[in-house]
Design a protein that fits this description.
The protein contains 1 helix and 9 strands, in the order βββββββββα. It is mostly beta strands.
Length: about 160
């Protein structure tokens, strides 16, 4: 916001976004694989702003190492349809889940390097890091509920990172 409390025209797309998303997840033992694909298009809003339309694809891989440690790769591949451009990073990081009586803390860091890039303002190197807190409601939890929480976390990460692109 500027001094008058107005938003800055240089920030954001100036439009509402609508779209569709599809997710698939496969888990076996210590391995979790999956992918999230999201299509968004700008509607309404500021007619002086260019129309936005993009696809975000997020393949992800998690490999549990034991004692709460894991390896991860979850880059978001960004494809701009309106102004042809793309960013296809590859990342490899690590994380640690710390379980307490009331909260599960998940800390991770994943350096990512673009292997294909075209467009202005797209990062060639980025570090994706985060802390996720999950508050326990019931101490007895099934594995399917744990996978569901991971899917929700990845969806939230994807949405937040899509807004930064």
């Amino acid at each position: 916001m500027d001094q008058d409390g107005e938003s800055n025209d240089a920030l954001g797309a100036g439009q509402h976004q609508i779209g569709v998303a599809s997710l698939t997840v496969w888990s076996k033992g210590i391995l979790l694989l999956g992918g999230l694909v999201n299509y968004q298009i700008g509607v309404g809003g500021d007619s002086n702003k260019p129309r936005t339309q993009f696809i975000g694809a997020q393949p992800f891989l998690m490999l549990q190492l034991g004692k709460g440690y894991y390896l991860r790769s979850s880059p978001i591949w960004y494809f701009n349809i309106e102004e042809p451009g793309y960013n296809v990073p590859f990342g490899l990081g690590a994380g640690k889940a710390i379980i307490t009586d009331k909260v599960v803390y998940n800390l991770f860091m994943e350096p990512q390097f673009s292997i294909a890039i075209r467009g202005v303002g797209l990062p060639a190197v980025q570090i994706f890091a985060g802390i996720n807190l999950q508050f326990k409601v019931d101490r007895k939890e099934k594995k399917s509920a744990q996978a569901g929480r991971l899917v929700n976390q990845l969806g939230a990460e994807h949405s937040a990172r899509s807004q930064m692109q």
